[in-house]
User: Fold these one by one.
Assistant:
Number 1:
Amino acid sequence: MNMKNRDIISIRDMTKEDIEYILKKSEEMEKNMKKNKNLLNGYVLSTLFFEPSTRTRLSFESAMNKLGGRVISVAQPKASSVAKGETLADTVKTVEQYSDVIVMRHPNEGAARLAADVVDIPIINAGDGANQHPTQTLLDLYTINKECGKIDGLSIAMMGDLKYGRTVHSLATALAYYNVKLIFITPEELKMPSEIKKYLKNKGIPYREISGIDEIGKADVLYVTRIQKERFPDPADYEKVKGIYKILPETLDILGNAKIMHPLPRVDEISPEIDKSKNAIYFRQARNGIPVRMTLLSLVLGEME
Ligand code: NCD
């Protein structure tokens, strides 16, 4: 499949074939890391991050380095001309002159789409506000498939901030391509947005909404999310839901063999004592960002088909 010059903006732009292809290529990439060490020799990736990031930015940079490419980056917009009042369109058009692909994170929904409309090189959305985080979803699907041996037939629970969490918005949208059952665990204030629920309904994906983890029933995966403090218009509303869910050692009795995922960073929603349990797969999940992002960069730069 030729994905040269494709922008990766939203899961909604992808077909199931696109997703399956990227997952298959990522598996091959993971087996052949060393063989591909010069694949992107001569290419430059720009990472433009207008919001904090550890995993997404560093794993993209590591991925590019492992393929022999180079990286330039703006990780602190205050140190760039954005602080002088430059528009996003002008910033990305300028960055385009210096690079072959841009990975961008921005607090505004639709920012990545706007950037893609003004530049000709591929734009990869590393998160736009509460909207989408497609590359996280691809590594999440890769992780589920690797750890559970399949995606079809699974019951997948998502817990925490399903209102503002872009990772779960992208993931739920992608899972609509599979034969899954979904369980949403949230307080009333942080429910999954109705347009995503409507999308799931149209695709015939059954979902349950519950408020307590004790009602989870049988689940193969529990995807935990951080309450997105920075997205609450009123800090008082955050205070009401802060710390509302915590996975503690005793929670494992309810979870059985369910694999616990988390896009990270966590605050207090998973106790560090869980890390050594066999349920915890979130650090392996983070590691899967490397082969998946190596694959995406190679595909959009046209060095892999
Ligand atoms: C997530 C994000 O930025 O949306 N982090 C990530 O990319 N792994 C999740 C979060 O910030 O809670």
Number 2:
Amino acid sequence: MNAPAIKTAAPKSFRIKSYGCQMNVYDGERMADLLTAEGMAATPDGDEAELVVLNTCHIREKAAEKVYSEIGRLRRADGSRPMIAVAGCVAQAEGAEIVRRARQVGVVVGPQAYHRLPELVAEAATGRVGIDTDLPALAKFGRLPARRRSGPSAFLTVQEGCDKFCTYCVVPYTRGAEVSRGWSAILDEARALVDGGAKEITLVGQNVNAWTGEDEAGRAQGLDGLIRALDRLPGLHRIRYTTSHPNDMTDGLIAAHGDVERLMPFLHLPVQAGSDRILKAMNRSHDARSYLAVIDRVRRVRPDIAISGDFIVDFPGETDADFEATLSLVDQIGHAQAYSFKYSPRAGTPAATMADQVPDAVADERLKRLQALIAAQQAAFNRGTVGRRTDALLERPGKRPGQHIGKSPWLQSVVVDGGAIGDLMPVEIVAAGPVSVTGAAVPID
Ligand code: 5AD
Ligand code: SF4
């Protein structure tokens, strides 16, 4: 599409603001790689950037409205407007509507088309809006530049999209059908990340445990096979994956939790609700009991595993009894952490037009109770780790001079004195707070 845009000089500097999930963080990094390869410079100070990329999320709340107000506010330090590119799932969902409503936007690019970002930016600089919201299956990966540098902990997208069609969720529409990236492309990227400094890799996908592929010998593999291949990669110390669906927790993947030492003892496995009636209305295709059975099997092979999850309160028709069933399920699981959200109707999804949308006042009260319960479980989990000797992968500076913040194997934030970013520091957990623990360096034996 070639609607007129505001003509600007070709931008030489950029800033990317990513919202939402880990896949967006990964996509944001890849867009930065692309723009850097074109000779543009990343600005640490957003006010200076000549191009601002809003890498948006559409999963909940008035996402699109928030993007429009952000667009309206964006100014450079000298008061001029930067070129604005809207990327991510709001771009996919809204498409050309974005430029109709916000004339300042020069580029609209969906999650499967961002390999074309530099071209679209060049087009916008000539005064024509660059729009691409096609959804080809993973074509972009072959066109992205090789990865060169990495932080100690890196994301690697291996799978995108979703075929599950939970009735509340936009992902099947904004990210498209489930597609897996190829085996060697993933292993090549993993090697490049390790060469670039990564000690930990998190395999990312909307349904990452639905990943399937073939290895070099043409044998069918699942996510567990990929994890075992990564386990043989020299220099890689930690492997994680997110986000998973309970129905895709295969025997092989559960077994990997028991015998792959580098696979960290952490599992983010959303259940969403505890009432079977609500789970059915959500089209989750599992019930509370089958979910607990999966957790039980993972715990049998890896007793210390930290369980995380996602919950939605106030799905249409949720009664007090349904909500109590969620609290009871949470009680039985015992989380190391979990996210809970108020149901947010998304246009185009089946749940948005269901009867009995729950009033806000009830929703707020239920959300508060659920969050209090989860917070108590998280604090208890943290207390339970005091006295453990483990290691922390240091990722960023702490508040005090010399202090660093890292992650434990159980994905707790660990605050330590000393060390350096990138260290896998042997620590003893000596104190626990509600959302983090304190580690003391222990000598390496
Ligand atoms: N409303 C509220 N929460 C939602 N999620 C997905 N769609 C919605 C919605 N319409 C939550 C689910 C999912 C997480 C990423 O976001 O819990 O697991
Ligand atoms: Fe959305 Fe359900 Fe797919 Fe998760 S499994 S991305 S909640 S449709």
